[in-house]
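Quick entry, no commentary yet.
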Amino acid sequence: MKERRPRALERETAALIGLAAALIGLAAALSGCATARDRPIAMKPVSIQTLQYYPYLVKGYQNSYPKRSIIVLMPAISRNFAAAGNGDQAPYQGHPAIGVILDQRDQVDQRLYGPALAPLFQHALAGAAREAGMIPAVATDSLHDELQARRAAYVMAARVTDLWVVKQRAHDNSAGPAWFSVARVAINVTIYKPPFDVPFWQGASGAQYNDPSTPAPGIMPADETEIYDHPGEVLSVALTRAVAGIFQHQDLYTLLAQDAAIRTP
């Protein structure tokens, strides 16, 4: 009997130690989950995004314009970063800044960069003109040279004044981290009739795209789901809408349709 009590005590002590270890492990796991949930998602400081024009995304103007030739010049890029905020907008290894990803405290988690913007917009404008029914071509010559060359019925010059996207982490929901993105693009366009250097038409177009879209009344933003995974895709939608919006100007359509009718035998 004298030897059995110490052994029973040893077994009870071992069981208590095991139980204590299990409780400590469970507490650590729960604490780790809470910490991981509150801790910002680790990201690389820089991301190179893909930007593109989405053909036929915008409907309603396809093949409505007269089949007249138009030269699209290389657009000028003169963005005003005053509304962009969030610090540095300098290029990164030749890539222009196009936006940021923010955490829940509005701090920058990642800076976003994209491709060369001038050729991107040049080909986007030519693509939209082709969808409209015109016969576009791109050129790297100056406006003066193209007007004097008279290679087309019209020459288009453009200036990009805004292009920026912000993706931000919202309050987490039951499905995990929630995000929302806002992208803005604005462009000014002038169309000339060679050889005259007086503008034939001037106009502007802009677009803002929210992903997810603005929720209906009574629905919290955190309950909405993003359509696009990458902020470059969100910005591409805004870019497409802004570029296509040029050819949705009723006054431009009327002017070109009447001009084609006058000049066509």
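second:
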Amino acid sequence: MTTIGLFLGSSEIQNLISTGKLTSCEPKLRIDSIDSTFIQERLGSVGKIFSVADEDGNVKTKAKLTNSFVTTYGNPDSKMVSGLGFGNDIQKCKEQYAIFWKENFSESSLNDSTELFVSIWEHVQ
């Protein structure tokens, strides 16, 4: 039995299945406020396979965690930039992430030192 590692919307699940990969990125501070052990556990889980569930908890597929790391908004890791679909265009990634941040985390500020937790997933048949 595998543990649920991702809860995604239906379009994100379809994207994972069709492209074979998914990069997720969240504010480290937010994750730490919910579960202070999560990031350390996830960092130790690279290489493991997890179930992927929809937002209602129904398992839809599986994915292997291929990488996890902390980076900053001001100097994002190139694996995050490319994994989010921006190739090596760091500026475009930062612009789009700032929009995403404002829409989803407007209660907290985003600046160059803001830490982001990134997970890179590979679809498993």
